[in-house]
Amino acid sequence: MTEDDGTWWAGASAVVLVVLLAALALAPAPQAVGAAPVRVLTFNVHHGAGPDGRVDLDRLAAEIRATGADVVGLQEVDRHYGERSGSADQPGVLGALLGMHVVFGAHVDLDPLAPGAARRQYGTAILTRFPVLSWSDTLLPAAGPAAEPRGLLEAVLAAPSGPVRVATTHLAHDSGTARLAQARFVVDRLAGSAEPVLLLGDLNAPPQAPEIALLTAWSADAGADGEPTFPAAAPVERIDYVLAEGRILSHEVRPTASSDHRPVLAAVLVG
Fold it and tell me: Do 157 and 166 meet the contact criterion of CB atoms below 8 Å apart?
């Protein structure tokens, strides 16, 4: 090989290397090896009371188990609340039945009916197969001095693809103005998350409402153009949502005998 031949070969190699590096730079970042979607469920459980009026946590747990959900956001959950739910610790019972970690946000917190008894609480819960790294519960702007308190329950979870922030909420049912203020609060709080966010909840408004438009401008609606979710027996309104920062793979509204809302299941690739 002559000296000129060597120069040509070195130059060609350099060009090939530059092309390969440029292609790698433009290629999308691969998912982590073995990354699997997170199956998330939102479910307003109506303190476990089905359309038949019966409170049955075994029935409710069986429905949740059948979804294969990794993470569940629950609304309208009782904890030692009173006679309507047998004063049960519903999040604790469901967590034990499902073998899941539990965090609970008490947005209604009342004195016990008898000295020494547990406080009467009502709110939201997150059940998860993944370890809980941290959690918090924050009250939302109130609809009025006599309105039911609403909150945003958050948990950072150690999902296989990396930490993910799951939040569940239940917006005001009787005031669009209050819901809009609550939705702004939710976006302001979650938009700066260091982790990808999954927001699960009964948002008490249809997709075309301003408060929903505000939320879906920030995070994708997993069930865009999805089925109605309320009332459970013959749903006509879509008010239960999964919003996700991630690649949405599937969305399903499931039947139920355990509540007046239908649960919503989605598979999301996060991380």
Answer: yes
Distance, CA of 261 to CA of 201 (rounded, Å): 11
Backbone phi, psi, residue 130, to 5°? -85, 150
Q: What is the pLDDT along the chain (271 residues), one digit of tens a residue?
A: 444 444 433 444 443 333 333 443 444 444 444 578 999 999 999 999 999 999 999 999 999 999 999 999 999 999 999 999 999 999 999 999 999 999 999 999 999 988 999 999 999 999 999 999 999 999 999 988 889 999 999 999 999 999 999 999 999 999 999 999 999 999 999 999 999 999 999 999 999 999 999 999 999 999 988 899 999 999 999 999 999 999 999 999 999 999 999 999 999 999 6
